[in-house]
Task: structure prediction
Amino acid sequence: MTSYAYVPAKLVKHVRKPNSPVAVLVYKALTTRFFPSLPGHFCMLWVPGYEAIPLSIAYQEGAHYYFIVKKRGPTTTKLVEDPPRYVGLIGPAGSPIPAPSSGGKILLLGGGVGIAPLIYFATTIASYVESVTLVYGVRSSNELVELDQIFNVNRFKNVELIIVVEEVCERAVFKGTLIDYITVKIGDRLEEYDRVYASGPQTFLCKLYEVFNRAGLLDRLVLVLETYVRCGLGFCGKCTIPGTSKLLCRDGPALSAQLLKNWFAKICV
Amino acid sequence: MTSYAYVPAKLVKHVRKPNSPVAVLVYKALTTRFFPSLPGHFCMLWVPGYEAIPLSIAYQEGAHYYFIVKKRGPTTTKLVEDPPRYVGLIGPAGSPIPAPSSGGKILLLGGGVGIAPLIYFATTIASYVESVTLVYGVRSSNELVELDQIFNVNRFKNVELIIVVEEVCERAVFKGTLIDYITVKIGDRLEEYDRVYASGPQTFLCKLYEVFNRAGLLDRLVLVLETYVRCGLGFCGKCTIPGTSKLLCRDGPALSAQLLKNWFAKICV
Amino acid sequence: MNLNIDVAGIKLEHPVMNASGILGSTYNDIAVLARAGFAAFVTKSFTREKREGYGTPIAVPISETLSLLNAVGLENPGLEGLAELLDSCKIFGKPIIVSIAGSSPEEFVEIAVVAEEHGATAVELNLSCPHVRGRGLEIGASPSAVREIVGIVSSSINIPVIVKLGLVDRLVEVASAALEAGARALTLINSVKAMKIDIYAAKPILGNRVGGLSGKAIHPIAVRAVYEVYRELKPDIIGVGGVFSWEDAIELIMAGARAVQIGTAIIYYGPEIVREIVEGMKRFLEQQGFRSIEEIVGYAVS
Amino acid sequence: MNLNIDVAGIKLEHPVMNASGILGSTYNDIAVLARAGFAAFVTKSFTREKREGYGTPIAVPISETLSLLNAVGLENPGLEGLAELLDSCKIFGKPIIVSIAGSSPEEFVEIAVVAEEHGATAVELNLSCPHVRGRGLEIGASPSAVREIVGIVSSSINIPVIVKLGLVDRLVEVASAALEAGARALTLINSVKAMKIDIYAAKPILGNRVGGLSGKAIHPIAVRAVYEVYRELKPDIIGVGGVFSWEDAIELIMAGARAVQIGTAIIYYGPEIVREIVEGMKRFLEQQGFRSIEEIVGYAVS
Ligand SMILES: Cc1cc2nc3c(=O)[nH]c(=O)nc-3n(C[C@H](O)[C@H](O)[C@H](O)COP(=O)(O)OP(=O)(O)OC[C@H]3O[C@@H](n4cnc5c(N)ncnc54)[C@H](O)[C@@H]3O)c2cc1C
Ligand SMILES: Cc1cc2nc3c(=O)[nH]c(=O)nc-3n(C[C@H](O)[C@H](O)[C@H](O)COP(=O)(O)OP(=O)(O)OC[C@H]3O[C@@H](n4cnc5c(N)ncnc54)[C@H](O)[C@@H]3O)c2cc1C
Ligand SMILES: Cc1cc2nc3c(=O)[nH]c(=O)nc-3n(C[C@H](O)[C@H](O)[C@H](O)COP(=O)(O)O)c2cc1C
Ligand SMILES: Cc1cc2nc3c(=O)[nH]c(=O)nc-3n(C[C@H](O)[C@H](O)[C@H](O)COP(=O)(O)O)c2cc1C
Ligand code: FES
Ligand code: FES
Result:
């Protein structure tokens, strides 16, 4: 049983590298009736004077909601460059990412701001799984969010953060795309991971589906999808996940790849 | 912070001696959102087709509300003679009877259906006070409610039930009025009681006030009053306790006798 | 015990349908409703032309009262989309009611005709949208405007015409005009014009500023509207407004409704809530010794 | 930081008064309000003759939405009682506003004159009672009826005339008529016509069956009414409807109200709630860098 709420919130942190298209924002609820979230939940973040847009909750600590935003159009540009002192949060939207039922080795693959829900997810499952490998891929170094510093992901001994950048970058462990990383660095060892979760650009998710399909491992893969989201509350029907009868804002954004056969056929091929 | 509710309820028990003007009714809430009560709380009991009247909650056990009703006019007559299968309860009205802060010997004096709140009160304080003497006075034996059987007040070792009836009656320990009982049986030993609570007809409460005033013991006495109650929710102003600025349905019905000097002057003299 | 009932001549396996605007825009929406077990489907309100709707947010939850404020702006795919939707939804084999929000009698007729051609079971004329100028409440407040539109639509199609009204001063009069002009049933009520302001941003939150209040908050208002219209006119009524539980549904039916629609409860509890409501109603009827829904229609009205 | 504000020319130490019908019938009621710290007192609506009101229950809590349904029936002690009440309440030294519910222009005038003679600070004409025939909403729905009553009362007394309106189709028009006829301020809004049925008893619960819905449920409706009237006419407004917290009060003020009244919150939380609301407003203004209530009146209106 969801219990949606509207939460007025105040900017308490804004982290952005010079000229970066990406920023981390922390907003604090201004009411004690703020909503709790689980990893995978997103919210409609209303920028007064602009619109309300879907943003993954990258972390929540009490009344503090963390977001990672990338410039795309007017609302995200405003958020990245000059985040408003006050916003409104409508949520929690969507369903939690299905957690691994038992221990095991978990691989998380986040491309760009797609990393957001996986950060929250990593910190939540770390306590009971064997290991979490969090691979974070970006195009260029100025898009890189310092996950260690901001989200303190290194506080967990069993969480390994691997940074993958397409351009040359000293912070990176690997130069290339996430798919390159999987091909080169993991290769046949995909099977070693009990569950794999991926979030990022659609082309990346499509390729990953192919890789897992070929390897016969679709049952281990969960994809965090994006669709156009309008109401975020499950009534407008805009966010239907192609090839399925699921609403992203209610049943998603994370779905098992096994359910995405028709999605793959419609979207990726 | 009160949280009023409307609770539809169903008759589950109706105890009445042949031709008795008094009946015990037990109604069970038909919703899980029923309100909790404390001794002293009353509710507006709505009899469909009749009116809503104030009735003390004589006991509450989960969803079960106990009432003791005496015939007076149309609504109480209906309740005593042919209680409706379904009623509505609006409450909790009023404030709890102020409980004795520590142990000690407690005397409860209930006249007629005025006994109702004291039953609930006795069963609540029994666990932490030294002793409870519950004196229950009625005019004639057919008005007598079997407190032992229905409310199981004898389950507490430190609660003594004393029945006082004006007419001859084999169940009675004493023949006379409650005031007679106090004069004859307690007399100078009033002081032995750390707190005294009384509920019943106004003339009885007036006399008791006089007795305690004369004895210089007003600070030990709490009276459970009655006024005309219309809304039961603290907005209509009908239930002002004469000589005070209290609303019975919010601040009452139990008040320390010390606050009732003007009430006494206005009502009793 | 079954919960069969008919309203406006439409046979329903039980009295619960979705309210217009909640999951009635796409084939997938209807599929979701069908899977959940609704007895009939009501589409989002259609206009002749495709409409984009208002800027976001289009809805703001008001959780303290289990309510919602919305201003979607009658977003819909227009006539073409309607035909497609109806064609594709035939496979569900259940009644489908097309909601129409025209701005002129002609537009209402045009859409109603397409609805009928493509197999709609009935049309519901939305004469009560609280936040789209010229398509809603102004029309529904005027007995003569209602008479005109309902009259012309009723004489243009053979499927039942249902008229959806909102909170207006002369509700009984308007209802009476609709019935005289040929409405087979009334849907009561639409959301109520309202607003929420964020005091920190110092702005109305909805993209459209003003919207419609729905959910638990308006339930007692809906009960009153149904009761009053039923008492005076005894028409077929579909009750809507704040139905969150089977008790709420029974309350509307005892006030005079033959069927109910649920909107905001779908948002808060998910479409599956319909089962709980239907099961609860069934249990209640059995326990109280009633033999059908029919028996309790208007049961509390005197 | 003080919260001084004036409305209809009445100086208030802070913007919070009680709503008519909540503790405004007796000297003791006013004493309770004074002790709690209200800035001004509004009486129960008075009629010329004493009225007994409806049978009980006269109010039913709807706890799920922090709301209340009431039908008191304009119970009041009539003109004589009014004079006595006003005389005795002078000692509180605060503005006292007499609410009037007449059934004819003459009755309104007669009561207003007595109110003025006995020292009332202002009168509030209740043109919006949702459940007493001939004394309320029918009047308040008609611009011409409003113009007539407000005009004659305004020309008969010198103290300010405030007009209390409810949810009506042509709210802005009616508001405009009231102001043109001499109203110094508008109180928006009254409770909304509604009903609750007990499904086991199969009967409406209120003695009068139909009543007025107040409390949290109607707050977004009140905000919208205030916003709309303020945007069009910029009059002095007293906002009322579902104020339970300082946030709710600020919301109505940002929508255009200069003062607020609280009714149902007094019932749920006790009269002491006024302090919390006033303290919260003060804190908010300070934290946000405002220097007075005045600065935020209509701040969210554009
Ligand atoms: C579940 C979900 C979670 C998301 N999480 C994040 C996140 O954590 N960080 C982040 O930076 N972005 C996230 N996004 C994407 C983000 O919502 C869009 O970038 C944003 O809506 C663009 O708005 P705009 O006004 O800046 O650009 P616009 O000019 O409105 O649009 C630019 C492009 O963004 C996409 N877009 C626009 N509106 C939406 C919408 N309502 N829903 C989905 N896509 C849209 C379209 O592809 C469009 O062409 C998420 C999207 C979804 C659906
Ligand atoms: C706080 C409180 C608790 C009460 N608890 C009990 C109880 O546990 N058991 C019980 O039998 N009675 C109780 N009463 C009294 C009971 O409310 C009245 O007997 C009842 O209202 C009479 O209603 P009627 O329709 O039968 O009679 P009516 O014909 O309406 O009245 C008969 C007499 O009862 C009194 N009365 C009537 N209405 C009210 C009212 N609304 N409030 C107070 N007195 C009224 C008047 O003196 C009246 O003359 C209580 C009253 C109060 C105020
Ligand atoms: C998000 C949303 C969109 C709506 N869109 C429409 C619509 O297009 N046409 C219509 O007649 N009613 C519309 N309504 C009103 C509902 O059909 C219904 O009358 C109202 O919400 C009250 O029911 P509820 O309290 O169960 O939600 C909409 C309501 C909501 C919440
Ligand atoms: C019990 C009760 C009695 C009322 N009586 C009156 C009245 O006599 N005159 C009037 O103008 N409004 C009356 N009202 C309406 C209130 O003044 C107010 O407009 C309404 O309750 C909305 O405010 P709230 O939500 O804060 O209660 C009454 C409201 C309640 C709850
Ligand atoms: S965005 Fe998912 S249903 Fe509206
Ligand atoms: S009965 Fe106590 S205030 Fe109405």
Chain A has two domains: 5-93, 105-224. Chain A has a mean pLDDT of 94.
